[in-house]
Amino acid sequence: MKKKIISIILTSAMVFSALCGCGSNQDQSTADGNAAGQASSDDKIVLSVSVMANEEEKKIFEDAIDRFETAHPDCTVDASYTSGSTWGEYCDKLLIQIGSGEAPDVIHVAIEGTQMLVKNNVLLPLDDMIAADPDGQAMLDDFVDATTDVFTIDGKLYELPTDCNDAVVHVNTKMFQDAGIEIPYDGWTWDEFRSIAKQLTTGEGDSKVYGFATSLAPSWLAGWFMSNGSDYINSDWTDSNLSDPKALETVEFLNNLVNEDKSMPVPETTTDATSLFAAGRVAMIATGIWPFPSYRANGFEDVDVVPMPTNSEDAKVGFGVGGVGIYSKSKHPQEAYELMKELTSVETGKAKCASGTCVPVRYSLSGEESYLSQCPNAKLFFDSLENGKALPSPMNYSDLERITNSMFSAVFSGASPAQEAVTNADTELKQSFANLK
């Protein structure tokens, strides 16, 4: 069973890592041990924690651990950091740790791994601990509802959110202004988006500038299904939803951008839409807040964000979220709970806002200047969470990715009509879910 689970999750995170602001653009590395945790550990409770973080995020977690150790002198923390990997690879490593009897007390993992860990009894439900904590309910009330709802499975809460990203449209403000196009800060429809993408597509060959670009991955394309009130899979992530007529409509819309309007290059898994956008090769992309520090570092300032265009009154905004939970067999669950609270505290959240890689997950941090200063319309990212829907992360994500990528490739290449490709993908995805039962 373990081998099957590892296979299922191995490819379960592509852009989710970026959406959650973790592990991107870093070399693979692990660092085990905390200097304070090594000293006088014989008479202290030693808590282990596993974290996915790049160097900047690692410093934020280390500062939180220092605060915890200062407030809890009877505890020391042994932290293991992983960077440069996908969430699937990280979960693979985590399973090996657990299997070898070296499970961490506190586990940092995004939604890609939550279902797998819960279904295998790796995470401890937090509800009773929060109910017994005088500050627990106030803490819970401060988290954006959508970010805790996604960590609630079968009525029980298993993680507290650490960071979040949701997809909105990044626009090249100079291109809009030069073309005399009003920037749609108040929202727009699919038809308006399509018209503007065509207007912003100029040139030929190597000098061509496209109106829009995206990568070929479920997480990059899911937002278009959600903006049409649909999704790849059903609401509880147990079956395909590709038989929904709105799903076919979404595939046809994206295909029109590629093959009829020529306003979007054929998406590939290797497409780096963010780099193309920053280089002025495309006028728009749809992603989270995480690229803005890189934009500034490279002197790219002609950028702002606007809402995703919609084609349905039931439109949602896709988001990814990371969190921390407690190992179900931890020998020190109460101390682990206190550490988890510090890793998700207001102070930790402020530091994450200042990093520019994620959106606040607490209502109380939505007005932080360090967050709002990331771009002129940064407030949109937080406001969009109120209408947020978690990017699909089922147990069989690897199959979801393979099947939907094949579907889009067949359509974009002209190998299959949209209806045929979607129907075939629906059948295959339904069988994948049936195989899990």
Shape: globular
Strand content: 5-15%
Helix/sheet category = alpha/beta
Can you name the CATH architecture of the largest domain? 3-Layer(aba) Sandwich
Low-confidence stretches: 1-18, 20-41
Number of strands: 12
Helix fraction, binned, reads: 40-55%
Q: At the third CATH level, what is the topology name of the largest domain?
A: D-Maltodextrin-Binding Protein, domain 2
Distance between the termini: 13 Å
Tally of helical segments: 21
The CATH homologous superfamily of the largest domain is called: Periplasmic binding protein-like II
Keywords: Signal, Transport
GO biological process, one term: maltose transport
GO molecular function, one term: maltose binding
Family: Belongs to the bacterial solute-binding protein 1 family.
Task: Describe, in plain words, how this protein is organized in 3D.
The chain is α/β, with parallel strands linked by helices and 437 residues long. It has 2 domains: 2-165 and 320-390, Periplasmic binding protein-like II (D-Maltodextrin-Binding Protein, domain 2), CATH 3.40.190; 168-318 and 394-436, Periplasmic binding protein-like II (D-Maltodextrin-Binding Protein, domain 2, 3-Layer(aba) Sandwich), CATH 3.40.190. It is built from 21 helices and 12 strands. The chain has helices at residues 2-9, 15-19, 35-38, 55-71, 87-99, 111-119, 127-131, 136-142, 145-149, 173-178, 190-199, 218-226, 245-260, 273-278, 292-297, 333-343, 346-355, 369-372, 379-385, 397-413, 418-436; strands spanning 29-32, 45-52, 75-83, 106-110, 152-153, 156-157, 160-166, 168-172, 284-287, 303-306, 317-326, 388-390. Strands 1, 2, 3, 4, 7, 11 and 12 form a 7-stranded mixed sheet that branches. The chain has a 3-stranded antiparallel sheet with strand order 9-8-10. A two-stranded antiparallel sheet has the order 5-6. A hairpin with a 2-residue loop joins strand 5 and strand 6.
